[in-house]
Amino acid sequence: MLDIAAIVLAAGQSQRFGADKLLHPLALHGETLPLALHSLRPWLAVFGRVTLVVRPQSDALRLAVSKAFGDAILWVECPDASQGMGHSLAAGVAANADAAGWLIGLADMPTLQVEPIASVQVAIKVGAPLAAPYYNGKRGHPIGFSKIYQDDLLALRGDSGGRELLQRDAALIHRSEVADTGIFTDIDHRADLQAITGESQ
């Protein structure tokens, strides 16, 4: 059986943050690390390898992540990343075209835990067409897509990031109930850091 591929999108431009948020030092779980490393740790606890989709000129991010995780990261550069998340998602799927399905996550979610990632992976592996974690009835990340969505994902453009597919086929989503509010917590502004640590970053 083919494996499920893990794809983490890291090609945003951090415009609202004002600097490269993925490299911002974040004190979490007793360690101060670049934000992206906190985000990637639970993924690597579930998957042996993670595809990280980046924009061109991401040398500093590559250096920091490679130093921490080495060959566990498959790098995919998306030259059209500035045109929207859909391009990055499609690039990640294209780089894993032989997979049985794909879990799509974001590199700016440092409080996401192992449980949601693992539960969505299992749901796709046992045959769900779509899967996502839910907390108190609200959907979060990551999102799992089965093989039947390959053509749809490869055709994504702009900034939808698969949102239209989830809306269209909402009745097909396997809901994994989790106890992790980190499924909602992405970092867009510096104030978001204070909200998760209780301290000014």
Please explain how this structure is put together.
The structure is a single chain. This protein is an alpha/beta fold and 201 residues long. It has a single domain (4-196), classed as Spore Coat Polysaccharide Biosynthesis Protein SpsA, Chain A (Alpha-Beta Complex), CATH 3.90.550. The chain is built from seven helices and ten strands. The chain has helices at residues 35-46, 59-69, 85-94, 114-125, 150-154, 163-168, 190-197; strands spanning 4-10, 25-28, 31-34, 50-54, 73-77, 101-106, 130-135, 138-139, 143-146, 173-177. The strands form two sheets. Strands 1, 4, 5, 6, 7, 8, 9 and 10 form an eight-stranded mixed sheet that branches. It has a two-stranded antiparallel sheet with strand order 2-3. The termini are far apart.
Give short descriptive properties of this protein.
201 residues, alpha/beta, Spore Coat Polysaccharide Biosynthesis Protein SpsA, Chain A, two-stranded antiparallel sheet, 7 helices, 10 strands, 32% helix
CATH class type: Alpha Beta
By CATH, the superfamily comes out as: Spore Coat Polysaccharide Biosynthesis Protein SpsA, Chain A
- Count of beta strands: 10
In the predicted model, the low-confidence regions spanning at least 5 consecutive residues are none
The major beta sheet can be summarized as: 8 strands, mixed
Radius of gyration (Å)? 16 Å
Roughly how much helix do the residues carry, as a percent range?
25-40%
- Note the gap between the termini: 45 Å
Task: Tell me the fraction of residues in β-strands, as a range.
Answer: 15-25%
Shape: globular
Question: Any guess at the CATH architecture?
Answer: Alpha-Beta Complex
Number of helices: 7
The overall number of domains is 1
